[in-house]
Amino acid sequence: MTNPFLNAIEEAASQTNMNEAQTGGEYTPPAEGLVRLRFVGYIELGKHEKDYKGKKSQVDKVQLLFEASGPKHPPREDGTPIMFSQRLTLSTSDKAMFYKLFKRMNPTGTATHMAQLLGNAYIATVVHNTSGEGDQKKTYANLRDKEGVWTIKEPFLDVFNEETGDATRKAVAVADPITPIRCFMWQYADEAQWQSIFIDGTWEAKTDDSGKVIQEARSKNVYQETIKSASNWIGSKMQEILFAGGEADIPDVNEVEGTGGAASDDPLEGAG
After folding, report:
1. Residue scoring higher pLDDT (221 or 53)
2. CA–CA distance, 148 with 180 (Å, rounded to integer)
3. Domain that residue 183 falls in
4. How far apart are CA 272 and CA 66, in angstroms?
């Protein structure tokens, strides 16, 4: 499939090698078991606050989107596919979940940037985890096993011959994507990438039985809004592009203070 962001991705890949580790409501989860995936979204979100054991820091975040298909994971009745959305710290530390996932998705090391893998087919094992008790108990679908290891891999399965004991590597067919490719790379941003992550529409306000609003209406355009809330948004390449086009103003310093929070629900996410 044709990747409309190829030039920007190649520029990013020429400057970055992610293979090189740095030391140091009602919800029905997607079915457990084998799932076919297309990697359809790589969105760098900028720097956001991380609170780990009471220690706060600013870290780069990235959103990864995988479109599911296959007998156990068909599109919904409205034709939209199940999506697995993973928000991770963008780090190539050898212990980082992002780095470990990149290595599983790029076992030959051919790609040097995660965005080069957009459009690629994969398979994974969906694992269910539960949290809470009683009425508050919820089940979540994940692409990591009980030990936290990624289950995503290239779309091949080993088929064993019981008589000979030999194994044959068999390719698994993965459907073409229904959703468009979404890509946003912070240092290599341009208008096409910005438009690719725009989501139109608004989530309606939620009310209780008495009609009291318990959750205000909110935009579905979570990726652009999350990027704009990043602590390093002001002065970023995309902010300057929008400002030059008259689409963004530079706020007062008091308005910038406190930025870095994440936006709310991911409208594309079906699990994860």
Report:
1. 221
2. 29
3. 6-198
4. 10
Per-residue pLDDT tens over the stretch 32-83: 999 999 999 999 999 999 988 888 999 999 999 999 999 999 999 999 999 9
Closest residue by Cα to residue 89 from 22, 27, 38: 22
Alpha-carbon gap, residue 142 to 125, rounded angstroms: 8
How far, in Å, CA of 140 to CA of 129, rounded? Answer: 5
Tokens of 27: 């919800």
Say if 227 falls within a structural domain: no
Task: Answer whether residue 217 is part of any domain.
Answer: no
Only one residue has tokens 């936006």, namely: 263
Give me the number of domains the chain comprises: 1
207 domain-assigned: no
Residue 253 lies in a domain: no
The tokens describing 210, both together, are 């008495």
Q: What is the C-alpha separation between 255 and 272, in angstroms, rounded?
A: 33
C-alpha–C-alpha distance, residues 231 and 23, integer Å = 26
